[in-house]
Amino acid sequence: MSEFKPLVFSGVQPTGNLHLGNYLGAIRKFVALQDNNDCMYCVVDLHALTAQLVHEDMRGQIRSITAAFLAAGIDPKRHIVFNQSQVPQHAELAWIFNCVARIGWMNRMTQFKDKAGKDREQASLGLYAYPSLMAADILVYRATHVPVGEDQKQHLELTRDIAMKFNMDFMEKIRPTGLGVDITVGDEPVHAYFPMVEPLIDGPAPRVMSLKDGSKKMSKSDPSDLSRINLMDDSEAISRKIRKAKTDPDALPSEVDGLKCRPEADNLVGIFAALADKTKAEVLTEFGGQQFSVFKPALVELAVEVLAPINAEMRRLMDDPGHIDAVLRDGGERARARAEKTMTEIRDIIGFVR
Ligand code: TRP
To answer: Which atom of ligand 1 is nearest to the CA of 13?
Structure first.
């Protein structure tokens, strides 16, 4: 049985400043995956229009995400780093997927319900179709593996539903082209044009919570800047935010169980573990019984050690926007070549005249 060629694809929206949660949850995973995989990392600027049409500094935001990718160690020569709008084939395939996906499927998307809020009539049509464009981002390269956060799982299930419906509806048109791949889905043999993508959700990535409230996710939209560590924060800011982070009066426990019902302690231990590439248990072996007055300075030292080089490199890159744009242009060109090959095949499968 032949198989789809493994390809890793992921996207990050160019909105707001990247913070520690984005780094530990996404970008660090992207970096780790590049050793053994062909990878494409995309700044999804078209998606950024879905919630807010006019952005004060769209270009700066796109460059800043790109700078973070590069500063964290993604190699744009061996892999592809680009922004979505440079590859119009994403939008073209998204249109086709709008005609594949059913309204009933879209109505189940929890992210749409959350983002649209109470007044759904006022949400953009783009916000509604967001998951269809996301499926196109992935499938226009027939990518097989997608590193994402837990919150994107439902969108990846929809991506599989779209791929499956396209495969089934067009199966007899795909077969004579010789472009399909024999796969089994469940027990069923399918001659598929699109792969069934797999989410890469596990791994060391912790849920990084707010430094001011251990029950809320660290977020770029939190009004308090003290609640998050931004990738653009310098050492002084990192140190100040950790020193001011909310804690409880007790010493750290020696066992992970002791972190239950102590969300702030749990969060700081989790951040330490993630930054040190250790388990929480290992961190508590070292710090169990210690007060935060001992633990926090150790966390500051570690956070600065890991983040300061990334921060310095990001600043250096941001001072040379011409270089960032050149990286995106090169990535865009290579991505476009791949995407156009797929779209030519899809146009043929559907039966458009060319
Ligand atoms: N929806 C993703 C998020 O908010 C971003 C995204 C857009 C994406 N297209 C993608 C992620 C394709 C993975 C693959 O995190």
So the answer is: 5
Classify residue 179: in a domain, yes or no. yes
- Any catalytic annotation for residue 217? yes
Report the CATH number at residue 76: 3.40.50.620
HSE-up of residue 114 (Cα within 13 Å, Cβ side): 4
At residue 264, does pLDDT exceed 80? yes
The rounded Å distance from CA 134 to ligand 1 centre is: 6
**Residue (of 28, 97, 90, 96) closest to 276 by Cα position:** 28
212 a catalytic residue: no
Distance CA 286, CA 305 (A): 19
Are 82 and 191 part of one and the same domain? Answer: yes
Q: Respond yes or no: is residue 244 known to be catalytic.
A: no
- How confident is the model over 26-41, as pLDDT tens digits? 999 999 999 999 999 9
Domain span at residue 35? 8-204+321-350
* Nearest Cα to Cα of residue 255 among 292, 281, 273, 277: 281
Q: Give the N- to C-terminal CA distance of the chain in Å, as an integer.
A: 32
How many residues in total does the chain contain?
Answer: 354
**CA of residue 10 to ligand 1 center, whole Å:** 6
Say if ligand 1 is within 6 A of residue 166 CB. no
pLDDT digits (tens, 9 = 90+) for 83-127: 999 999 999 999 999 999 999 999 999 999 999 999 999 999 999
- Are 167 and 135 a contacting pair, CB within 8 Å? no
Same domain, 29 and 164: yes
User: What integer is the mean pLDDT of 307-316?
Assistant: 95
CA 317 – CA 68 distance, rounded (Å): 9
pTM of the model: 0.94
Answer yes or no: is 44 within a domain.
yes
